[in-house]
UniProtKB/TrEMBL annotation, chain A:
Its main location: membrane. One of its GO terms (cellular component) is plasma membrane. The lineage of its organism: Bacteria, Bacillati, Actinomycetota, Actinomycetes, Kitasatosporales. InterPro entries: HyfE-like. It comes from the Bacteria. The keyword Aminoacyl-tRNA synthetase does not apply. The keyword Metal-binding does not apply. The chain crosses the membrane at residues 6-26, 33-54, 60-79, 100-121, 133-151, 158-178, 184-204. It is a multi-pass membrane protein. This is Hydrogenase.
Automatic annotation (TrEMBL), chain B:
It comes from Streptomyces monashensis. The chain crosses the membrane at residues 31-53, 65-98, 118-141, 179-204, 224-246, 287-306, 318-341, 347-372, 393-412, 432-465, 486-509, 547-567, 667-687. One of its GO terms (molecular function) is oxidoreductase activity. InterPro entries: ComplexI-like_HydComp, ND/Mrp_TM. This is Hydrogenase 4 subunit B.
Length: 225, 689
């Protein structure tokens, strides 16, 4: 693989990664959001694979494959299952993010601003060692910020789970791009952690719906002293 | 090689053993073993101090002891003086403490925690003056603050009650005192940390030797800032007005031996820090530093003793008196710095010697006073002077020892406090030769304030002794009082011996005091000489021979009481009933109480004290003209606390309440805080890069 092709493919994968995050903000149907999230998992795995292939490191390729299976396969499957249960239970009301706290247009604008911020913050880091990988570093940071933004503005519990996972995807991407992949054992630990978190959140979401009849977490307002 | 390192190593080993013994031993053994070991810490520390006063010096670095910086230690005569005072007080009070904690169950001072902490506190009192680097000093300082806090809280389940009475659960005043003490001592630590960090950064090193060498290269404004920060912290530890608020709370609520240690040894270390930093490390400074100290000292002296005059709680009275005496010491330190700033070294040495001698004297009589108050508290469960009384007959030894210490505290001959205050007044009176308008205004004012505080102190201790120990008991618990156990009396007798020695032959301390003054770069000897029994000021041609004063006074008293008695023998004495104005036999309720004794003073100082009175008349239901109940409430609040602290506390509380409104309960809001914080931080990073 030539250097030019590698750079172009890496940029493509990173672009798809960022675009998926923005599309999560755009979508209203939770099912569509989950699909976009799965696509982002694929893009993340592609970033890892490209880096591994470029540096000819088998452990990195292995980690990237594992990440791909988890983020594009297992996690979307789990969320979709929870979604199907709530759709069967309460009808279409529960499967749409009808009224986010910040509307879609403003969300997209904010995403643009956050991306700019990420580029501004990462500038000193890229200047340290300007390779194609570090030049793509701001994408990871931008996805972290966008994921956080989703957490803050979306009402449905499952949309929140996706936001949390976006944040984690961003962190993983940053780790790939900045350090050419963290050691296998660390990545395994992080992935396992995320899996457990999603399982717990899935159970929690079901419980919340059974108790309150909705998963709009803005209705839970007792959490103060 | 001197005896100092050996003595300090012994003290450390004894304290460690004591802490382990306090943790491990059962109650019966615990108190005695820990008491003996603590007394040993005191003796060892005192020995090191005396050796340093005798002229030997010692310095060492233990690089492994404190991470990064290493522990720097050094002992000179100034440190020696404070170590000797702390050691002597510790030795006597530890003996007293064995008696105090025995036989009252494994709670309060006898508890496992208190007994384990006590030797560590003792060790920290001895070791704080030994530190010779900022980090070492602050570590020991904090150790002292924390251990003393534990001990203040020792009786948090309610104080000593006389044997056989049921104990109330929990004492809010102890908790409150602990909170005040913890907050104020840590605010002091923050100031100290900031001041010393600034000083060390400017001087280029944190050992005291580097600071001393680098102090003169620092710009004057920074030096001034360092002094203000450090002086605020140290005067707060010394309990000077207006930073005294913790003192009248913590000292009364601590177990009495701990009160004695805090008031007679710990508070002194504030003075030590001030002298060490201001005069030694910073090497003196401009006049405004010292004028500020003089103002603080004068305010503490008068305000402290006025509040003591109003207090009816015996230990609270003593605590305020500590504030007063520290005010006098601060006046001496301030005057010393002022004279040094104007180049009059001999006078500066005299003022500092007076201040240090007053530290010693105050430690002796205040430890004894707190111990005696502790005996009263232990025997009666009462601290309220309005309910005490008649203890002279029931606790004769305690009463006599209290009287002896009170004589020292009123600063009249033949008490020991007189000598140091006389020296202080001499230095201030002769300081008028120093030029400057501020000096010409401040020094006479200081003299007047000292005179005023001495006068009120006389009233205060007449009240404490007369109302508390004479007259008739006003409470059944006071009537049932019994003399303290022998070990407590032994401890108090040791302290009393110190008081008497200081009152009669202060010359014994002479050369040590000269060396201590010399340690900060002032000419030690020369300003005052200690010829045998007396004190002679060479430059001023004034002299005082306490022994002769005592002899003359004794002769006068013997004559005044003996002659009428001889003469009166010839007349027949008629025993008749006291005239009672037809109102029936006098009852204890008719005697002077502490409140009524203080009433005239309170009227005189009405504007300063601003007492609060509240009359509440409840009429009978049938008629408005018939009174069922009249309630009269009278309080003399600490006005400075009222005006200075309460607005700050109210502002803090309302800020806290306002901050609670931020927590609305919405998860989105909480997440939003985190997100906004992150974005703002990143923006700051971008802009600031």
């Amino acid at each position: 693989m030539s250097a030019g092709l590698y750079t172009q493919l890496l940029d493509l994968a990173c672009g798809a990664f960022l675009l998926a995050a923005v599309l999560v903000l755009w979508g209203r149907e939770l099912a569509a959001i989950v699909r976009v999230f799965a696509l982002q998992g694929v893009a993340l795995a592609a970033v890892g694979l490209l880096l591994g292939a470029h540096e000819a490191r088998w452990d990195l390729i292995l980690v990237a494959l594992a990440v791909g299976v988890l983020r594009a396969g297992v996690l979307p499957y789990l969320i979709r299952r929870a979604l199907a249960v709530s759709a069967a239970d309460r009808g279409s009301d529960e499967v749409r993010e009808t009224q986010p706290l910040v509307n879609v247009a403003a969300s997209l604008l904010t995403a643009a601003l956050l991306t700019l911020l990420a580029y501004a913050v990462a500038r000193p880091l890229t200047e340290l060692n300007p390779t194609p990988a570090t030049r793509a570093l701001p994408v990871g940071l931008a996805v972290v910020l966008i994921g956080f933004f989703v957490l803050v503005t979306r009402r449905r519990a499952l949309a929140q789970v996706v936001g949390f996972l976006l944040l984690d995807n961003g962190i993983t991407a940053t780790a790939f791009l900045a350090t050419s992949g963290v050691p296998v054992i660390v990545e395994l630990g992080v992935s396992f952690d995320v899996l457990l978190a999603v399982l717990v959140l899935q159970i929690l979401t079901t419980r919340v719906r059974e108790a309150f009849g909705t998963t709009d977490i803005d209705d839970l307002r007792e959490l103060h002293d | 090689m001197s005896a100092i390192p050996a003595a300090l190593a012994t003290a450390t080993a004894l304290a460690a053993t004591g802490a382990l013994a306090g943790l491990g031993l059962p109650y019966r053994l615990r108190v005695a073993v820990v008491g003996v070991l603590t007394a040993g810490v005191g003796v060892a520390g005192g020995t090191a101090g005396v050796a340093a006063l005798g002229g030997s010096r010692w310095r060492a670095v233990y690089s492994g002891l404190v991470p990064l910086a290493g522990a720097h230690v050094a002992v000179d005569a100034l440190a020696g003086l404070f170590m000797a005072v702390a050691g002597a007080v510790l030795a006597a009070v530890a003996v007293y403490g064995i008696g105090y904690a025995t036989g009252h169950g494994a709670h309060g001072l006898g508890s496992r925690t208190a007994q384990a902490v006590l030797p560590v506190f003792a060790l920290s009192l001895v070791l704080v003056p030994v530190a010779a680097a900022v980090s070492t000093f602050l570590l020991l300082w904090e150790l002292m603050a924390l251990t003393s806090l534990f001990l203040v809280l020792a009786e948090h389940r309610g104080g000593h009650l006389p044997l056989g009475r049921s104990r109330e659960r929990g004492s809010p005043s102890v908790r409150q005192a602990g909170t005040w003490y913890a907050v104020m001592t840590h605010l002091g630590l923050v100031l100290l940390l900031a001041g010393f960090a600034l000083f060390a950064a400017q001087a280029g090193g944190e050992t005291f030797a580097t600071l001393r060498a680098g102090a003169h290269g620092i710009p004057p404004t920074v030096r001034g800032l360092v002094f203000v920060l450090v002086a605020l912290a140290f005067t707060s530890k010394a309990g000077a007005v207006p930073l005294h608020a913790w003192l009248p709370r913590a000292h009364p609520e601590a177990p009495s031996p701990v009160s004695a240690l805090m008031s007679a040894a710990m508070v002194n270390l504030g003075i030590y820090g001030l002298v060490r930093t201001g005069l030694d490390l910073l090497g003196g400074g401009p006049a405004w530093w010292w004028l500020g100290l003089l103002a603080m000292g004068g305010a503490s002296a008068v305000y402290g003793i006025l509040q003591a005059a109003m207090a009816s709680d015996l230990k609270r009275l003593l605590a305020y008196s500590t504030s007063e005496n520290m005010g006098l010491v601060l006046t001496g330190v301030g005057a010393s710095g002022l004279f040094a700033a104007h180049g009059d070294k001999p006078l500066a040495a005299l003022a500092l010697a007076a201040a240090l001698l007053h530290v010693v004297n105050h430690a002796a009589f205040k430890a004894l006073l707190f111990c005696a108050a502790g005996s009263v508290l232990r025997a009666t469960g009462l601290r309220d002077l309005d309910r005490l009384g008649g203890l002279r007959a029931r606790m004769p030894v305690t009463a006599a020892l209290f009287a002896l210490a009170a004589l020292g505290a009123v600063a009249l001959p033949p008490g020991n406090g007189f000598i140091s205050e006389w020296l202080l007044l001499q230095s201030l009176v002769h300081g008028l030769a120093v030029p400057g308008v501020a000096v010409a205004v401040v020094l006479p004012l200081s003299v007047a304030l000292i005179a005023l505080s001495t006068g009120i102190a006389a009233a205060v201790f007449v009240k404490a002794l007369g109302v508390g120990f004479f007259a008739r008991p006003r409470d059944e618990r006071a009537a049932a009082a019994r003399e303290a156990p022998p070990l407590m009396l032994a401890g108090m007798t040791l302290l009393a011996a110190g008081v008497v020695a200081l009152a009669l032959v202060p010359g014994l301390l002479g050369h040590g005091l000269d060396r201590a003054v010399g340690a900060v770069g002032l000419p030690g000897s020369g300003a005052l000489t200690w010829g045998g029994l007396g004190v002679r000021l060479t430059d001023i041609s004034a002299r005082l021979e306490p022994l002769w004063v005592v002899a003359a006074l004794t002769a006068a008293i013997v004559l005044a009481t003996g002659l009428p008695r001889l003469y009166g023998r010839r007349r027949r004495r008629v025993n008749a009933r006291l005239w009672d104005c037809g109102g029936g036999a006098p009852t204890p309720r008719m005697t002077y109480t502490a409140t009524s004794f203080a009433e005239p003073l309170q009227r005189v100082f009405d504007d300063v004290l601003a007492p609060e009175q509240d009359v509440d008349v409840t009429p009978v239901r049938e008629s408005a003209y018939l009174v069922e109940r009249v309630r009269f409430q009278h309080r003399v609040p600490d006005r400075i606390e009222h005006r200075l602290y309460e607005p700050v506390l109210r502002a803090l509380a309302s800020t806290g309440r306002a901050a609670r409104r931020l927590a609305g309960g919405s998860v989105h809001l909480y997440l939003g805080y985190g997100f906004a914080g992150l974005v703002v931080l990143l923006l700051a990073l971008v802009v600031g890069w």
